[in-house]
């Protein structure tokens, strides 16, 4: 089986001169749910933003067999759905339906297909009865679910999350982790939530100052106190 995400020798320097990634390598197999952990500034978000071409550094990225480049960017962005930490960054329409429909409409799908995609996505996040609601009147947990639905409506093979449980109360957090466990897509999840890592992911990748310092089973890494301490995770 070939990896669905393959990153080789990825380096990136921001315009201010800060090097955020140093020769990062990563392979994720189809169906894996992988945690990406590290202290603030470790490079987690920078790495995620390379996976659908928001940022472009030196190195090689392949998604589902497609080499990242100008000619494949649209195809790769259809394969990789990014869910940002703040759902308000993805919700901007008067109704939930319109937000979830935006991606399929942009893809040029016909009205009946768009409606089918929207209903399927809302059902997947258990929000089918919220289509006519105003997103700004929803709770934080509900907004997170709708943000996920806006990505699911484009039927990606890979879901990328940046701090999915940030700002949620205990119940909403618990329900979101359960929801993510139900979804079949390959996932790469940048998080500080070690409970999420333990409950949801089988594998954890540790970043420290833009470098991969550990990659292994979540159970092993979570119980390695010295490793966690050395990487600013305790």
Order of helices and strands: EEEHEEHEHHHEHEHEEHH
User: N- to C-terminal separation?
Assistant: 36 Å
Query: Rg from C-alpha positions?
Result: 18 Å
Number of helices: 9
Largest sheet: 6 strands, mixed
Oligomer: single chain
Describe the protein.
By secondary structure, the chain is of the alpha/beta class. The longest helix has 14 residues, at 111-124. The strands form two sheets. It has a six-stranded mixed beta sheet with strand order 6-7-8-3-9-10, sandwiched between helices. A four-stranded antiparallel beta sheet has the order 2-1-4-5, with helices on one face. The radius of gyration is 18 Å and the shape is globular. It is built from nine helices and ten strands. A hairpin with a 2-residue loop joins strand 9 (203-208) and strand 10. Helix 4 (111-124) crosses helix 5.
Please render the helix and strand layout as text.
Blueprint (H helix, E strand, L loop, with lengths): L4 E9 L5 E10 L4 E5 L6 H7 L7 E6 L2 E2 L5 H7 E4 L12 H11 L4 H14 L15 H13 L5 E5 L7 H13 L3 E5 L3 H7 L2 E6 L2 E7 H5 L2 H6 L4
Parallel strand pairs: 3-8, 3-9, 6-7, 7-8
Antiparallel strand pairs: 1-2, 1-4, 4-5, 9-10
